[in-house]
Amino acid sequence: MTADIDHTGAGTPPGATDRPTGPWHDTTLTPEARADALIAAMTLQEKTAQLFGVWVGASDEGGEVAPFQHDMEEAVDLDALLPHGLGQLTRPFGTAPVDPAVGALSLARTQERITGANRFGIPALAHEECLAGFATWGATAYPVPLSWGATFHPELVREMAAAIGRDLRSVGVHQGLAPVLDVVRDARWGRVEETIGEDPYLVGTVAAAYVRGLESAGVVATLKHFAGYSASRAGRNLAPVGMGGRERADIILPPFEMAVRESGVRSVMHAYTDTDGIPSAADGPLLTGLLRDVWGFEGTVVADYFGIAFLKTLHGVAASYGEAAAAALGAGVDVELPTVKTFGRPLADALAEGLVPEALVDRAVRRVLVQKAQLGLLDAEWSPVPPALAEAGSADPEALRGTVRLDTAGNRALARRVAEEAVVLLRNDGTLPLAADPPAEAPARIALIGPNADTPTAVLGCYSFPVHVGGRHPGTPLGIALPTLREALAAEFPHSEIVTAPGAELDGPATGGFGEALELARGADLVIAALGDRAGLFGRGTSGEGCDAEDLELPGVQQQLLDALLDTGTPVVVTLLAGRPYALGRAADEAAAVVQAFFPGEEGTRAVASVLSGRTAPSGRLPVSVPRHPGSQPSTYLAARLGHASEVSRVDPTPAFGFGHGLTYTTFAWSDLVVEHEQAPTDGEFALSCTVRNTGGREGTEVVQVYLHDPVASVVQPVQRLIGYVRLDLRPAEAARVRMTVPAELASFTGREGHRIVEPGALELRLGASSTDTRLTARVTLTGPVRRADHTRRLHMGVTTEHLTDSP
């Protein structure tokens, strides 16, 4: 490291003694007061410089970062920019493979250059992707968000996010671009793997937990994509959104509202799409009127990459980049990412011409500087040396190489827990669990057939580093251990002979490999079919950004292979490593078992193997419905009556496995429903309780899901929707008494006048093991007048659980 940086963090940046000092350095003042004082001392160009980032890549030799030349943008001249300051550094670790310690050194040296070049010594805020872990070389690859949803376990997701945040902060990163709060509306959309599920309440609770975890580590979380990106027509990426205001208000927006109100989130990213002709990046009523004026959000709104320029190039609502900058800034976008385009010279020209009032710049830069003050970046004693380098005590790149571990044993154990709780057992005829020991009970010969049988990256999503970036660097090692399903099964079933054949390419048309695969299947005691997806970017995979599907048939000839395996007569256990749900044809009824894992991360194959053997009890539940027919899309369980099967359409959207479904290796009995108050006013609440008992011979997890059915309403409602859930881990014969307090506000919806209301009338509170498996029903009634419900309404049930004695 250069002599200007002290490894203990007490160094003095070059030129610091010549800089103006002021209240912005005073840590006893509020971040707002410090930001206001700094703004008063800044020139207009210094203020606008805080409103954009530059896309960079860290040096694997430890030198300063270099601007990343993206094919959508021209080169950036850092020497011309830095004297005025710089708002953000985009993905210094996530652009090219770099040793984490050397990357941290590169970032520190760059921060030293940035602070030395501008007269106030303001560092840049560095951000990275962290959708399924810190997206850098050598960092833990956790399960994708769809797996988070499958856990129905927000606290575990919070714990995972805190670990991700600690890794980010340790090397000098301040902001993470996650979580995704888009509610799945069409599973053909390529980015389904990045979502948490098809229900807004599940999405909101899990996403808010992730935010709390990331923010607890001192990292700014970023909600995305605000709002409606997932509701594009035909599930096409970046396509227009044609939903109405009620769908937006009742399906798309609630997760964002929950996170803003409850999680402490400090950043929001606008969506690419337009809704009814209004692009999100230029939607003032959304980005300012709702987000800030109604919900009270005080953080920064950042652009999705190139999203402001898209107002000109894709949406056609701006004639120039200056007009695009004016529209976005006026709507409430504070920071242009990933690199300077519209907020540079075009914004400066628009300001000079009087097209943009300086007050809009002051509004945005105040939010940016408040955040930098919160992060300690305005402190006089701030040092560019991150904690990982301060502990290393060296400035020699070669001495540092390999000293920072971002895939620790603790991380892997946590990734394993998330993966295990996310595995969903969809079907089981009693074949599972497979005995692994003693040898006499284990399957003598297992035929592992399918394109995902021996593929290390089959467990990774599109935004994992080996897939997202590593594919452009084929000579670079993966950086993490990725045991294949074959390797995991061999370790889990050491007394079984495992024979393997791919059968077919994952998305290829050829069936020439069927012969070998079927021969192995006929000679085996059990077939495990390893099917699913390959993550990729913009068409390089079958799942991921830009990898939208025409229908939900398994990619390539996998369905034909699966059908042929079923025809052999050997029991077939289907294992799916995928980024979206797929129709499974005959297998939904004929397979011995079906196990679904949504890109479960680096520990994913071990998690699947442990569920197959029964060493881990399956506890995952579907965050998205699994269709019975590949062409019956778009379809989610949140459908009104006309969205369900009927005699007037030949298209049947009834799922093979509904939202919330998931089997276990034990059984549960639900009983003793008590409704304390069958009537409540529209500003009141209901109280009910029930008992859930493990009646089987194994430990297991039941997820009590509470659905609301409103039989008569002033506007059309979904037949049912999730309003609460609770996980219960129960030993054999153990029971729990679950008491729920249900506020009337949970029955609210957007009425005919466009306001959220609570209406009087009869309701059903359905307590179920899934959306298709109701166990108990409480019939209750709301009384009194129609009542307006606003952003202060209660969003959750109250839940308490009491574990009872182990005997019935």
From TrEMBL:
InterPro entries: Cellulose_deg_GH3, Fn3-like, GH, Glyco_hydro_3_C, Glyco_hydro_3_C_sf, Glyco_hydro_3_N, Glyco_hydro_3_N_sf, Ig-like_fold
Renumbered residue ranges of the record's region Disordered: 1-28
SUPFAM superfamilies according to UniProt: (Trans)glycosidases, Beta-D-glucan exohydrolase, C-terminal domain
Gene3D superfamilies: Glycoside hydrolase family 3 C-terminal domain, Glycoside hydrolase, family 3, N-terminal domain, Immunoglobulins
Domain Fibronectin type III-like intervals: 702-771
Example of a GO MF term: hydrolase activity
Keyword field contains Transferase: no
Keywords for the protein's UniProt record, in alphabetical order: Hydrolase
Domain of life: Bacteria
Family, similarity comment: Belongs to the glycosyl hydrolase 3 family.
Protein name according to UniProt: Glycosyl hydrolase
Biological source species: Streptomyces koyangensis
